Amino acid sequence: MLIEAKKDTTSTSRNEPIFILGISQRSGTNFVSDLLALHPDCDATLIPEDFFMAYADLLIKFANSLDRHLRYWEIDKIVGSPEKIYESFGNTLSTFLNSQGTKSDLIDYKNKTENLNDFTKSTKRRITKTPSVKNLSHFFHFFPNSPLLIIVRDGRAVVESSVKTFNRGYEYEMRAWAEAARTIIQAKSEFDKLNRKYLIVKYEEIFTNTEQELNKIFSFLDLNAENYDFEKALNLPIRGSSELKEKTGKVHWNKVEKSQKFNPLVRYSNWDRSLHTRFNWIAGNYLEMLGYTQQTNFDNEFWWNLWNKWLDIKHLGFKGIYRKFRSKITEHLRIEKNS
Prior knowledge:
The protein has a single domain (about 20-265), classed as Rossmann fold (3-Layer(aba) Sandwich). It contains 14 helices and five strands. The chain has helices spanning about 30-35, 55-70, 75-80, 80-100, 105-110, 140, 155-165, 170-195, 205-210, 210-220, 230-235, 245-250, 275-290, 300-339, and strands at about 20, 40-45, 125-130, 150, 200.
């Protein structure tokens, strides 16, 4: 079962950005970022979502191609390995983030100064987020000394919220969440072997046990919790909730005061058996590995399994079924080899 993992074998520079990667959209990256931004030593960048890792495969391809060229000329003995190139890219991206204004800078700029050059004076640690774990396994190639927060959320809640917010299909969202969960599980295994500094936290735990979870996160990030306003955190306004669409017909990311009835933990409470069964079929194993529990108190399992197989064929085709089967065998062999 995967709940969290924390390694603290490398020192963290005070200039290193705090990276938040969510398992997907609707996983709570805004929520966690807003909570951390309340800390007096932190502030969120003006870049809503950086997506650095989502495109990291392009930098990996470039660095590997360059390394092959350097090896041909034997310059690699001077320049170093591809990892040095990756880290150089990461340093550049970190510098870029630190050079950008923060939300506090923007307020100060609007209220107090007329000089645009004073816009990026903040020395607080930058908080940056992305609601995606694409290329997660490459993170520490680029940012070996940066702390990484990974946010996971019950896949059923993510699926329901995404369907309501973005008008996407259940099948698409279920498969997307399953793929992201698999990415996290695989990366966890790699990170543990290399003693990387990362922390996996559950959205539900942060929402229900805010002070306890924040103290754990502050300890991980080497932040002092004594000056943090936990009361303000408990009354934090919400941003981008799918409930807004139910009330107003559209979703926006402006801050809205949280009502006493606000409860994002019951998003999928209206699911019938067909949705639960389909989700279990596609992503149930990953759900369990991330520390959640499937709803499985159903009968007539044989016929529902046939129904799921038919939907797989309808969605993936026979070639897709074969590729899925081959991928599962490969993953099983990899897990067996690493265990």
